[in-house]
């Protein structure tokens, strides 16, 4: 499933593509919203692992503008609820993710991204 | 203050009991006091007397450990009933409160033996000095007193059902706190009952044990890089963790035909023999609209293990765990084999063997003990472990495991 939490961990790994290869840009996406159980402890814990700018940007590409450009000092419930929604409830079902550097297209079908590279693309 | 509890373990996967117990204790912040250093525990015995803070700790453990059959408050043990009764009398303060107004029953049973009904009654009688006044209730009593006889395993020798009755190694007595309820999950996750499974699914019990080693619980994120048909995803999600996974072969997770059997080894992208002319043009999408499936070649096991540890160090949070099965050749395995795959900041916390004879598999649990951040690892197409192996000069016995497996572990094959 391509949730934004997954997207935040994915970089292009094509041969020679080692800089500016993150975050992948969404293209022609179909999204679905599915409710998930809210767990504030998980969110607080995971925050340190997130590339914040990439997350905010990805959410905007999918039409969600609820996240502030910087992580706030106070992690109140409103903020955590928005973060929860963005990270875990938005599912990209179809479409593609494109490397900002080498333009490699990673297709998404049935909610599963194909991150495999063809022969001539492996490092 | 700690109190003593009698742990009754299931008679399977002996080497997995203590690691599981320690994992679930860590998950719940429970402290366990052992009677001796861990290495000296006799794992062949199904009963253990261990120290815990309180009954609640015992309940938490019994509800989550797959290998716990039950936990009792410990009253007495001895080689004879005389010894048991003597100690039990000394511990009267623990059971006096149940003398009046408490319904009760006795559960008398044996390990490696079956006690004839008559003697079972005699055993219950022998506790009459406890002078319990409450009503005996076989169904739903308020307290259950448990008496267990332990017999030496007679290893496959046939004998009469009650032969050697009474000649037990030791007797244990206590009060039931909690029946192990997690064992019933084994049935629940039995792969045959799942509507969707492939042929690489793990047996339910093993995947539950593995899930417990990961400390799966709400608020954890677990990544299975080789997700296959997802038995690990099922069990870890059952315990409340978020799970995501990847696989080099998308057909299984997309629910198409599983293409190969359990013995298929790990793969990496690339060809066994490089093409003489490099394929430099992008491959055109096939007319049948199937996604392009790139060629793969075997991923040598010791290289894979080393890569996995480095990747885990990058991805895990401090204190997080990497858990995986490592197949090993029984005769050749040495403990240092495991250490060849480690890197700074990653330490082995458990290593349990499931023995199949000439080979086996080890459930390895590695913990990230560092708080430092590490850069994303880069994997060389040839396998990144070479420097690592050369550095300490030890070639682990699991190197080229697949080749050895298919050669039947013959020693001098050149
Ligand atoms: C034994 S199965 C995994 C079982 C799975 N973990 C479960 O819980 O059911 C092994 C899987 O690893 C996949 N695999 C092999 N090499 C891989 C690689 N380099 N990267 C990702 N997946 C790989 C295979 O396609 C196969 O589905
Ligand atoms: Zn790229």
From TrEMBL, chain A:
Highest rank taxon of the organism: Eukaryota
Any GO BP annotation: tRNA methylation
GO molecular function: protein heterodimerization activity
Pfam family of the protein (one): Trm112p
Annotated CDD domains: Trm112-like (cd21089)
InterPro entries named among the record's database cross-references: Trm112 (IPR039127), Trm112-like (IPR005651)
Gene3D superfamilies reported for this sequence: 2.20.25.10
Homology family: Belongs to the TRM112 family.
Oligomeric form and interacting partners: Interacts with TRM9.
Protein name: Trm112p-domain-containing protein
Organism: Meripilus lineatus
Automatic annotation (TrEMBL), chain B:
Keywords of this entry: Methyltransferase, Transferase
Any one of the GO BP annotations: methylation
InterPro entries for the chain: SAM-dependent_MTases_sf (IPR029063), TRMT11_N (IPR059073)
Source domain of life: Eukaryota
Gene3D superfamilies in the record: Vaccinia Virus protein VP39
Residue ranges, annotated region (Disordered): 254-297, 375-396
Domain tRNA (guanine(10)-N(2))-methyltransferase TRMT11 N-terminal: 4-180
Cellular component GO terms held in the UniProt record: cytoplasm
Bias kind Basic residues: ranges: 265-274
A GO term, aspect molecular function: methyltransferase activity
PANTHER family the UniProt entry points to: RNA METHYLASE-RELATED, TRNA (GUANINE(10)-N2)-METHYLTRANSFERASE HOMOLOG
Name the UniProt record assigns to this protein: tRNA (guanine(10)-N(2))-methyltransferase TRMT11 N-terminal domain-containing protein
Source species of the chain: Meripilus lineatus
Classification of source organism: Eukaryota, Fungi, Dikarya, Basidiomycota, Agaricomycotina
